[in-house]
Write a structure and sequence with these properties.
Number of domains: 2
Number of strands: 13
Distance between the termini: 21 Å
Shape: globular
Order of helices and strands: EHHEHEHEHEHEHEHEHEHEHEHEHEHHHH
Largest sheet: 7 strands, parallel
CATH topology of the largest domain: Rossmann fold
Oligomer: single chain
Strand content: 15-25%
Length: 388
Amino acid sequence: MRLLIAAGGTGGHIYPALAVARSLSDPDRVGSSRPDLLWLGGHRGLESSLVRTTGIPFRRLLLRSLRTVDRDVHLVLDPARLALAVPQAAAILARERPAAIFTTGGYVAIPVLLAAAPLRIPVLLWEGNVVPGRSVRATARLATALAVAFDATCQALRATGRPCYVTGTPIRETRTVDRAAARASFGIPPDGHLVLVFGGSQAVRRFNAALAQALPRLVEQVHVIHVTGDDGYAPALAGRQALPEQLRDAYRPRPFLRDEMLPALAAADLVIGRAGSSTLAEVTALGLPMVVVPYPHAAGHQRANALVLADAGAARLVEDEAFDAGAMLDAARILDDPTARERMAASARALGRPGAADAAADLLIALAQRRSLPDPAVVERRSRGAVG
């Protein structure tokens, strides 16, 4: 059985698709019936570098998977590339004949959905934000079924008439992570508190500036792992060097955490970060309290995502413009109140869907095999981590 994954652009589109691909290829899950996977992406996005390392065959459409926002020649070229990508996608689908397609929306999904409809190839379209993106709103009617991260998203897409399942956001496997081993790997003492600070790929400077000012007082109370981005790494190292020698080990700046991100999350007692769907999904799957600072642009998608956690008591929401050194220090004080911290952690665990990738993979295989789609209650249990 051949399955096609269409995803590209930012990590918010690519990482959930990678998680579903891993579930589809898990030998404990599929045994000897492992499907053949093909990935279809575009130009300019992260998919080229991220997917090629997995060994999944990778093809690129003519379009750029990250749309142009600047007023330049690409404002004219991008629509032309999109138009040319539709027959290109149709040719690829006609030649490869996948049994089903999984797509995470975004610019890449548009030509794929347009090409799949006349070929009658079933498509599972996943949306990770409370407020659906423009491409999803425009093309959801062309999908066979919808999978979403939040209950409210199904309501927003109800007019499409497509069956909609709340799977959560497909993420890396969190259920087998050893917290004690993760803390030991970062040298965190058993009685120490660890705060993980990262701004994702967008607007990390707000976090870097706040932490730089709060750092001398912060490391007197807690250990900090700080994901700075490339531009912020050298100033962070300088800030570490300026600390008293006995406090320097409490501050661990890193330009990026790739393979170490999941252990860092597992080791943390508190996360301070943005409200991307994958970040919130991993934080809740691990049952971590969070101070969430939504990225203020991108049509307000992150704020709507963050409110789900804040309203459930799993996170404290701080607006971007209000996040400064004082807010950073105030966030760390959550760790001084064990009762409040555990209450937030319990609320996070109640929202967690560590089996989201398995739930989405189940739906995709059902579509590929032309079987009836499972009952939503079955998908709910699967997404929460139930086996089978």
